Amino acid sequence: MSDNHGHHESHHGHDSHDHHHDEHHHQESFVTKYIFSMDHKTISRQFLITAVIMAFLAMLMSFIFRLQLAWPGEEFAIINFLLGDKMGKDGMINPETYMALVTIHGTVMVFMVLTGGLSGTFSNLLIPYQIGARDMASGFLNMLSYWFFFLSSVIMMWGFFIESGPASGGWTVYPPLSALPQAMDGSKMGMTLWLVSMSLFIISALLAGLNYIVTVIQLRTKGMTMTRLPLTVWAFFVTAILGVLSFPVLFSCALLLIFDRSFGTSFYLSDIYIGGQALEQTGGSPILYEHLFWFLGHPEVYIIILPALGLTSEIISVNSRKPIFGYRAMIGSILAIGFLSFIVWGHHMFMTGMNPFLGSVFVFTTLLIAIPSAVKAFNYITTLWKGNIRYTPAMLFAIGLVSTFISGGLTGIILADSALDINIHDTQFVTAHFHIVMGVSAILGMCAGVYHWFPKLFLRHMNKTLGYIHFWGTFIAAYGVFFPMHFLGLAGVPRRYYSNSAFPMFDNLIDINIFITSFAALAAAVQLIFLFNFFYSMFRGPKSEQNPWNSNTLEWTTPMANTHGNWPGALPVVHRWPYDYSKPGKDQDFVPQTVPLAEGEVDGGGH
Amino acid sequence: MIKFLVYVAIILGALAIGYLVRVFELASSLKGTKPEVITEKDNKLQARLMLFFLFAFFAYVIWNLVEFAPRMLPVSASEHGVEIDWLFNFNMAILFFVFTITHIILFYFAFKYYGRKGIQVTYLAHDNKLEMIWTIIPAIVLAIIIIFGLKSWNKITSDADPNSMIVEVYAQQYNWTARYAGADNKLGDANYRLITATNDLGMDEKSAEGKDDIIVKNEIHIPVGKEVEFKFRSRDVIHSAYFPHFRAQMNCVPGMTTMFHFTPTITTAEMRKDPYVIQQVKEINAIRQAAAKKEGRTEKPYEFNYILLCNKICGKSHYDMQMRVVVDTEADYKKWLATKPAFFAAPPADATKKEVAEIK
């Protein structure tokens, strides 16, 4: 395999690249081709399939705790079926299992599905394809990144199979709760596994991120200037930068927690009396942990949403048969969001006793992010205006994303306002907000990506009718679940409560919880349709032609085969930006990037 | 065995759908159409669904407001809470307006411009004027939101009145303890190393300010119309003291003391007479009685109370870490406090016995 690197040339002088793949195709065994592969397409598929499985497991977890919230204390055969006789004894879950499910659901969705899965799939697939490169800058690091991710996913789930159960302090695992095994069962072995898993995940994210950055900077084909990059690549590029700058901080955060747990240090611990004993540790502060955690944690939500927005930009433009409106403003927004995401983390900590003046600064910076976000939303809407919209399932998901991004983003303005945060901090209002703006939106974006690029991933089409059902079911269920949840928060219901029955004042909210759980069941049911469609189409779907969506971008100029090195002959040369759809004076409603400019033709949207 | 049957059912179900899809695909290929190609008919159907969704969605939003809004928290029982509620409604009005406009435009465009033959696409790549408009207008609106928000925030978090009454709220897994500062309005020193079975808060006997401190469990009384400065401490993990009816919240962090002050404005007795509260309590009691009847037990009617609850995940009983808050008239409050002895005062004989029993 080592001589594969012969193909990964920089774009200087690759025009005369010779095609000599066939000679080592026969050397590839099953293991090097499908398991320890260094090909970006295979790695992308590995990430996607792992993420689909993890997402399905995380969804089952959420369904179990939703059953508990709607019908506390009732017995469900399905809970016993899914969790077994230990955790799901008598078809019920106890408070500790509930916390464990909430924690692992959150961690898996945030990190394994929407960071590893989303970026891992689409950055890997689209960066080399869309910039005209034969592969990632380093195929080997790319392969390592997947296998670290895989290992981290396995270790994260392992917690369910140990005696004391998985980590259960919420996905943010604040110490001292997570640092002290005396505090709860989930802080025993399960927490160690969580930390090991996250450390491996961070390694994976860093290897991947560095690779994406280097690839975008170094391996663009001739003519592919930064301002001719599709917005997908811009989004992946900025996402990778955010990851490389913020994940190391999470690593130090986790490392100090490992020290506190295992080596008796007191970075996060001070003045604690627990389990009938005063602990030795003094002088540390759990607030330090929160600062370190959210210094990653906030960029993290943009690491999740930016790739989804990038995919949406491309899909909306292609299927509206119109250039994306305000291409440069979109790049500017991505950069502005990326920069601002590093100076807003304190808005998660308004209620920690932080100096109110510092709080004011974070209010200001946080609300600034609304401006580039608004620009993006308006630009999507304007792209639809006077278009010729082709409703592929991907397009439906992309439009759904615009809706949830707006409605979830607006409630963010409430939460970012520190005075209002006093009353809704850590309530169900927060749960509703972030699920809509980053959970649902990113999932819709990811689904849009899967439907749109399925022909590039698996050379086949997914079934469109099942796709339509999947979209409408998911979209309706998402609002069915998360819209009423805001009201729970406004009624004062906190997050992460095993049951609200300890408070008679919440008794009149039970039918809201039943309503929510019913829609969660609908959401789960339609995801089964997706799962079926995904795996069925992978093998039996109708074969795709080379450029099924009449797109301009480079990935559709390669033949419908998993050619190692992507282009059988010379690399394509780029002459124009990627959004010349329905350009006046052309006989087709699309002009691929490889078509030279006509005489007097202006690039980049002028005409 | 059941597990096995379920797995078999799942596999058979998947196979059945697989064959069904196969049949549809074969049928359409016989008709000469390609099932994966998006037709004008598809576009038209989806466009109509988009329009339908727009109407259904707003009907749903309005239904949510009508049905769920009457179950929200009653009027704020604190001075600053009224301002928070006003600010919330003010911001929500702006945001709801934006939400409505953007969604109408989004779904209307999605409906109107569905793909069909002969449509004239406008090649529009950018427009500086439009882009300026939707950068500047959000910026102005956000400036307004920021200014109003920070004005309230600064007022709420400014230093407490030096004459305000000081109460400590002490958190531990999974209960709350309140400590009143006594006649000198100063809390005595405490140290976690002094915690024993009888000295729950680790109070320091040598501290002069602590001599008159009073410790109370289960419920906390505060007088109406008087500013109370709460000092929060935690013994073990992070908790969050959340008083939803007063729109007040602050984390309790081990190793440090945090603060929040507010002025209660409505006594518990007055709040129980509020028509909104009466209606809510009536509904809650109807639900509770029905449930009790079904299970064949009797249930004491629920009476409205202010509550302090834990709002930061703190362990397995996080969902049941609460304390009643009672707002009294000044006179009632004094009467109540007078019945509580100072912690270091010689305890009455029966209390000593009880504590000894607890140690055992």
Explain what the structure shows.
The complex is a heterodimer of chains A (607) and B (360). In chain A, strands 1-2 form a two-stranded antiparallel sheet. By secondary structure, chain A is an all-alpha fold. The two termini of chain A are 47 Å apart. Helix content of chain A is 61%, strand content 1%. Chain A has one domain: Cytochrome C Oxidase, Chain A (Up-down Bundle). By secondary structure, chain B is of the alpha+beta class. Chain B is 47% helix and 16% strand. Chain B is built from 8 helices and 10 strands. Chain B has helices at residues 2-30, 40-68, 79-112, 128-157, 268-272, 275-295, 330-338, 349-359; strands spanning 165-172, 175-180, 214-217, 219-223, 228-234, 239-243, 248-252, 258-262, 306-310, 322-328. In chain B, strands 3-2-1-5-8 form a 5-stranded mixed beta sheet, with no helix packed on it. In chain B, helix 2 (40-68) runs antiparallel to helix 3 and helix 3 packs antiparallel against helix 4. Chain B is elongated and about 95 Å long. Residues 352-360 of chain B have low confidence and may be disordered. The chains are: A mainly alpha (607), B alpha+beta (360). At the A-B interface, helix 5, strand 1, helix 9, helix 10 and helix 11 of A face helix 1, helix 2, helix 3, helix 4 and strand 7 of B.
